[in-house]
Write a structure and sequence with these properties.
The chain has about 90 residues and is α+β, with helices and mostly antiparallel strands. Helices cover about 25% and strands about 10% of the residues.
Length: about 90
């Protein structure tokens, strides 16, 4: 995969402030999102991705990794798609 949209788990963490890396609203975020849940959502939506062991620079010590996703649309749409999947996982 040459290029792709990069997603980090911290983008969806409602416990973080926007300045700390959160990319979704507090309503659509979840506390401490698990990378495995993000992976399951991408697989369920049949979206091609690669999971890498590289971490967000601000959270290098968490070792959560990142996702390089092949998504044709805007990054904000992909973030919204994953966020809604995370929000609905507990229901």
């Amino acid at each position: 995969m040459d290029k792709g949209v990069i997603l980090y788990p911290c983008y969806f963490d409602s416990e973080l402030m926007r300045s700390e890396g959160r990319r979704v609203s507090l309503d659509t975020g979840v506390a401490h999102p698990e990378p495995g849940d993000i992976e399951r959502i991408l697989k369920a939506k049949k979206i091609l991705f690669t999971r890498e062991s590289k971490s967000h620079p601000a959270y290098w010590w968490k070792n959560q990794g990142r996702f390089v996703v092949e998504y044709p649309g805007p990054k904000k749409d992909l973030i919204a798609l994953v966020s809604s999947g995370l929000k609905n996982r507990g229901k």
